[in-house]
Amino acid sequence: MLHLRVIAPPDQSSAVVDLLGGDPGVTHLVVLPGAARLPRGDLVLCDVVRERADAILHDLQRLGVEAHGGIAADDVELTLSAAADRAAKEVPGSGADAVVWDEVAAKTGEQTELSATYLVLIVVATMIAGIGVLLDQPILIVGAMVVGPEFGPLAALCVALLRRRPAIIGRSVQALAVGFLAAMLATVLSTWALTAAGLVNRGMLLADRPLTDFIWRPDALSWVVGLLAGVAGMLSLTSKKSGSLVGVLISVTTVPAAANVAVAVAYGVWQEAAGSALQLVINLCAIVLSGLATLAVQQLSWWRLSRRFRRRTARADGAGR
User: Which UniProt keywords apply (predicted)?
Assistant: First the structure.
């Protein structure tokens, strides 16, 4: 369930209250006339079941509330209310499967910022993976996968492609390109520094590495894993299952592949660098394709569910008259 705080301009307050009060998915409706000061207007509070949240937010924006007022939404972790239980029963669908597109867009849009934190995380993750490649240590590879922040821009890219947001597409691609290039450059330099210090050497890269050589030897299963990871990642994002997202981060080899490219370039092992680069491209493309397909299926299924709900509501209103 979501808790909505709406600042409705005086000339739109009645329409907002009628909209919220007439929806069976809304409960705990409170209207405080003239309570808002910046911007000025009426403060309208309510709780909305997640199954109806996206449609209600869309209708509020269609009224133009955000232009002269404001809309804020928070998750409600606990609700003890018979009215809330009735609202959940009257609306079809499952709250766990509901997608609030404005929430997803806001969450992923934040991940496209090319911030210092993002750059440090992806650089550190790639450097850790570079050491893991040379030591043939899966533990370091898994640790690098968890630290890597690249899934944020990938998820934002999927959402932006579906919703046709060119600006966010550009920022997502920029964050991925700049992030990986900076990380690989830093890993090349760190590999040279560690070599100069006598901690690693070229022979470690050329030696048999049975536990991590999959990183630079992509095959058909690389596509399969990437596609499955994209599906799981999008579902964990839209359903707020953060624990599942951690599993997704561990399953894909984007950061390790970038690290293997950097280490191979540092030592001039071009065949391995090329294989790792191909692995990186395969995983990135597979995640975006399957993530976009997952979002499209979710959008279509909820659109059909909403249409059936509107038809049922219209029939009920007609029978009531």
Answer: Membrane, Transmembrane, Transmembrane helix
End-to-end CA, the chain: 31
Cis (ω within 30 of 0) for the bond into 10? no
Confidence of residue 213 (pLDDT cuts 50, 70, 90): confident
Per the CB < 8 A criterion, the answer to whether 265 and 209 are in contact is: no
Query: Structure pTM?
Result: 0.81
* φ/ψ bin of 200: left (φ > 0), alpha (ψ from -120 to 50), beta (otherwise): beta
The mean pLDDT value of the chain amounts to 87
Query: Phi and psi dihedrals of 4, rounded to 5?
Result: -100, 140
Q: How far is CA 204 from the centre of its chain?
A: 37
**Quick check: 319 pLDDT over 80?**
no
Provide the token pair at 142: 């898994």
Alpha-carbon gap, residue 24 to 9, rounded angstroms: 24
Domain extents for the chain?
Answer: 2-98, 103-303
CATH class of 2-98: alpha beta
* DSSP-assigned beta bridge partners for residue 6: 44, 71
Separation between Cα atoms, residue 84 and residue 13, nearest integer Å: 23
Q: Could you give the count of Cα atoms lying within 13 Å of 171 in the half-sphere of its Cβ?
A: 18
What is the C-alpha separation between 172 and 164, in angstroms, rounded? 13
What are the helix (H) ranges across 137-269?
A: 138-147, 151-163, 166-196, 202-206, 220-238, 242-251, 254-267
| Interatomic CA distance for residues 54 and 66, integer angstroms | 15
> pLDDT of 295-315, one tens digit each?
999 888 877 777 776 666 666
- Angle at 247 (CA atoms; ends 76, 114), nearest 5 degrees: 75
- Token pair recorded at residue 299: 């959008």
CA distance 46 to 248: 35
pLDDT of 244 above 60: no
**pLDDT score for 261:** 96
